Fold these 2 entries.
Entry 1:
Amino acid sequence: MTRLIGESYTDTIAVPPATTVVEKLLSLLEIQFSGYQEGGTSPWITDVISATDLVLISRGDPNMRDASGNSIAGDGGIFIRLQSPDASTLNVSVFSDYTTASSTGRRESTTTSTSMRALIDDTVEMEFWLWHNSYAVGCLFRQTGGASGDWHGFIAGQALRSHIPGSRSGIGRLSSDVLVGAGTLALDRDLRGAIQNGQKIWVINQTPSGDALLADNVQVFTVNGPVTDTAIPITPNVAVTQFDAFALVGLDPQNVFATGADATGLGDRAHGCHRADGAYIVNANRVSLKSLGNDVGNAIGEFGFAQLCRIYLTTLDGPAALRGTLEHMVGLRDTGATLTPEDLLFPNDNASNGFLIQNIGPQLDANNWWAVRKGTA
């Protein structure tokens, strides 16, 4: 399936006379996301809580799949929070559920200001590079000579390519409330062929935009019978709290993470809303970002070439699992080329498959760079 990757945007923020650099950055991000359209629709809703607290809400693309039938992004309810507690810090996190009615969320990926953050010098001009599509965001800041180092940034949202087989990767929503004691889930779409008898599925209460925040409820079930075009039989029966219409259904259906960069560049871990078994532990739903080396190929560029490597997310907290690989973003191992942001590199000299350099940071090794795919895939 050919699909728009999104768009890149770059700008320079001068030191503002009457506000802070981070406030100006959040204002520009709000304008960019609220005005962005993909396929004639606006996939993002913005909730401006204050000048220093912005939530980006993705409407997603229901059951989107790649050419092999694998679910790569979906109707997942993606809620990204960018919040600045002071003029020198930008915290990044994701929620499991959120409502604009009260600007509140649940199961925030991290609640500590030092876990996932980008550091900002309020006295230095900022250049920034932004990349996003309808369900993921990557942003890089450069403040040359800044007190906390030159380079900072973040990646957040559903920026993963799942390794769940397409036959088990269906994502849907409840079409009606499911009461305590029920053994069947009523669905809003046909998931036959995408959900199998005997597999695990999660059900996650999520709030329709603008409604009052629903009860916090996440359970993992086993499918115990044939899936029909409108329902999934489950075991055990629903316990403790009912699920409301619009609840999210699927195997690890909300595979969302946030990672921020402090003075050392992009960190080697990310925070999510759930562990691989569906559990949530405050500030302990982490994954490691790892590379297996030159597994994408060589990237030919204007000034030489670099080796490209996939970025894998593996369990750091909870049951061991491979949660997926970063989609459209790769690590570049510098082989002596003079690389700078906005340079284009072409894997294996393929001019239609270029990567735009978006980030620099010693996350994978001392010479690692980041790049994001341009065009379509």
Entry 2:
Amino acid sequence: MGLALIPFIIYQENKKKNMATNCDLLLAQEISAFCDKPLVKGAYNEAVIINRNDIDFDATSVQADGSLASIVLKSGKHGYKCVQPGNKPFGTGNTALVVGDYQNTWTHQLPIIVLAHDAGVTGSIIDKLAQGEFVVVVKMKNTGDATTANGRYQVFGFDNGMRASEQSHTINDDSLGSGWSTTLQEEGALKAARFLVGTTAEATEQAYAALTSN
């Protein structure tokens, strides 16, 4: 065998391996109106914010579809409830595709509103939102699958963390009442969306409740 053929053979072998390992790039479900599960837009006014460093990623398993049966926290750690005001909580939250040279990713954004302004709030919340890295689990109005509640709890920041991309406070802002607005953003997310999904709807609810238990 000539040496000139060796790179070609290696290329063909790698091509075969890639064809075997890139099956997740192929469409795997029919696109329909999903009439049995009509989509409801928006989110409830509650979420859980977790310091990303408090997550035990070794103990947290990712399912084949990218969902999480649970988010395991390190010993003694817990998430923090985040109650949002107004008629459209997380209203400007969005996801956008980012086209890359070799792989496409997604950017997720979530607005966090804090209607308070004092030393305790700025020190314990605002400063931390500005400097930290987080995972946020939002309760969506979409009730999800009745069996597992798939779609009810969306997870943001699991891949690369949510970090502040904007933060502002205006003394005479009528809409915020001199409160604070922070936009958390995740760049380079590997999935268009991740969800907290247990084996049953009850298990999903328990996994969500466990995030804030001490």
